[in-house]
TrEMBL record, chain A:
Phylogenetic lineage: Bacteria, Pseudomonadati, Pseudomonadota, Alphaproteobacteria, Rhodobacterales
Any one GO molecular function term: branched-chain amino acid transmembrane transporter activity
Transmembrane segments: 27-44, 50-69, 76-95, 101-123, 130-148, 183-203, 236-259, 271-304, 316-335
Pfam families with a match to the protein in the record: BPD_transp_2
Protein's UniProt keywords contain Membrane: yes
Organism of derivation: Tritonibacter scottomollicae (Epibacterium scottomollicae)
An annotated GO cellular component: plasma membrane
Cross-referenced InterPro entries: ABC_transp_permease, LivM-like
Keywords: Cell membrane, Membrane, Transmembrane, Transmembrane helix
Protein name stated in the entry: Amino acid/amide ABC transporter membrane protein 2 (HAAT family)
From TrEMBL, chain B:
SUPFAM superfamilies: Periplasmic binding protein-like I
Pfam families documented for this protein: Peripla_BP_6
Organism of origin: Tritonibacter scottomollicae
Family named by the database record: Belongs to the leucine-binding protein family.
Domain Leucine-binding protein: from-to ranges: 28-386
Annotated protein name in UniProt: Amino acid/amide ABC transporter substrate-binding protein (HAAT family)
Keywords: Signal
Gene3D superfamilies given in the database record: 3.40.50.2300
Residues in the signal sequence: 1-21
Amino acid sequence: MFYREAGDFKASYVEDSQTFPIKFDRYRYYAVLALAFGVIPFLVNDYWVNAILLPFLIYAIAAIGLNILVGYCGQVSLGTGGFMAVGAYACYKLMTAFPEISMFIHVLLAGGITGLVCVLFGLPSLRIKGFYLAVATLAAQFFLVWLFNRVPWFYNYSASGQINAPEREVFGIIITGPHAPAWATYMFCLIFLTFCAIVARNLTRGTQGRSWMAIRDMDIAAEIIGVNPMKAKMTAFAVSGFFVGISGALFFSVYLGAVEVGEAFGINKSFLVLFMVIIGGLGSIFGSFAGAAFLVLLPVVLKVVGVDMLGWPTDIVAHFQLVIVGALIVTFLILEPHGLAQLWRVTKEKLRLWPFPH
Amino acid sequence: MTLKLTTLALSALMAAGPAMADLVFPDLSYRTGPYAAGGIPFSDGYNDYFTLVNERDGGIGGVKARVIECETGYNTEKGVECYESTKGEGALVYQPLSTGITYQLIPKVTADGIALHTMGYGRTSAANGKVFSNVFNYPANYWDGASGVINHLLEENGGDLNGKKVALVYHNSAYGKEPIRTLEELGKKHGFELSLLPVDHPGQEQKSQWLQIRRQQPDYVVMWGWGVMNQVAIQEAANIRFPMENFIGVWWSGSDHDVIPAGAKADGYKAVTFHNVGDDFPVFDDIQTHVVDKGLAAGAGDQIGKVAYNRGMYAAMLAVEAAKTAQEIHGTAEIDAAMMIDGMEGLELTAEKMTALGMQNFGPAFNVSCENHGGPGLVGVTQWDADTQTWSLISGFNPTDSDVIGALVAEDSASYAAENNIEERCN
């Protein structure tokens, strides 16, 4: 009944190759966009934005970035935390060096710089694969964190080694710093997420995405049919780095405001984003959203239920969180190895036949 | 199940409804993770003192205190979540017990008009009330701690540290880096040679640092550690047979749980402190009668009298006294966050007050003012006795090098003011 092609006629190639070819799906997508841009900004308060929405939006960008690398191109990366740190520190240096320039440009430039760094650390991927590549990116993670801790130029020689986001504006509206209104920070991140998701979606369903997927599925075969492995891998690293850099820049400047590299961008962050991608679904843009939402919301929900409703001691709830999140990850990997995105796909198939399944 | 949850939610709402008139003190604690060893006793002490005030005195000026505990795990992201979820409850003062979270909260509390009390941690230059309107770090800060350590070494060496080698083992974070500037300045002043040995989070791996210490043979090792890092460092020092009496930690590296794992080998280890240790104070009898015997003790109730517990209790006591001061200033029992800041700035902690609270000589007597949010900066030294399993104060609370610290505070707060376009207050 839902998600049916019947009666949905396409009269041109453009119509036929659009992102959401099924009418119901398309309207649902427009509805979500309208809700996110037109309704939520008027309803949110500080708590919703700072505790739930901002982390979700920012992690979703990071997950999209990593998904391109791991899910689409098949290059395992454990350096996400380090690359987010590059984005954050690039953004910090740009913000403090050119205060009058719009934050939009700073964040995009930070993404670009991270893309370059990511390509540099992606070079070994031309020679090594799989677990060995994971170890090489792990080295990037530790090297980058060490670098930002070691070289005072990156944190403008501040005594504590922390970076603090000064107040910056976009079109006269404060975006960073404590006086930024909740809706503005939300909108700022939402615009970046929408932009990243659209770019990623269109890249992955075009030539570029197909060459990534060819490399992922079998690199020798891909090479034989004419996919240039170097170009495919390097573009995957560059695009992935660009998105991850944007998320790092937003994570530091808009969300946290003050960052200490070892604590905020440690190896845990790399694993967190990797879990998001795996739970959400490798090779799916929707999966990146679902994975980010799952891992951001679950701890908050568990905390609200455990501490605020049931009145349990905070430490018990914190321990339960670890147990429950861990158990859910294992359960998911066993029952649905393709992640939440696959669940969504199955649901769509079912809804399409409903109420008359054959 | 749904019905049950709804009922629970409703009852939670009903319970929260009339409680809004309470004085709310959020406790951003951490009872999990690699820093829980220090977080648990501090939070227990903080909670127990408020319970004591509620049970014994019927609240602060007749209004009950309500502590909302929120688990941060020493993690800044969770700290933000905790701050945002509790600030709407009418929070009066935040004490996050984490330098990382403090850096995060300084701009936020300033924008929201809530006080932040970072007792012996956080951003040291917040002692300058002219720049930091909402942040307090009385009665002592990191730089007082650093200077206190050096003063103790000076005393041991007859006032001359020329040519001595001092190694600083520190947590490689904003917290651990705080004392470096002061120690460098003091090194120039007194002629000792400082070497820096960073330990990365969480600090379980310190073999290379201690190997370096073994090679360099420093005369003294100073430690700026927290959580599991302390235990490991003391164990490693014991392993290389470094003389414990030449190993001095800051107050965050000087609790019972830090030294006990190393057993008898930890005997003689020293740490600076800004409050007294042990449970030989009348207030502990009150805690026994009004809190423990009624079954209201926070956590497992096994931390009472430990160093970190005392510090949490001391922090709560200072908050309660500030709230009382605010009630006096504004003539109302139900104070809000802005009044609380006035109370903290007007806080006068006299020896008589401390005695009346059953905490005679527990900490120094001091006054806070609009300009000085840092207190007197008096620092004492404690030493661990492994046989009796007790810390004891081996010196009085002595003043620190205010020339060096004052200049650094002025410099650092001026740069913060310039970064954030803050005009000096209190003129």
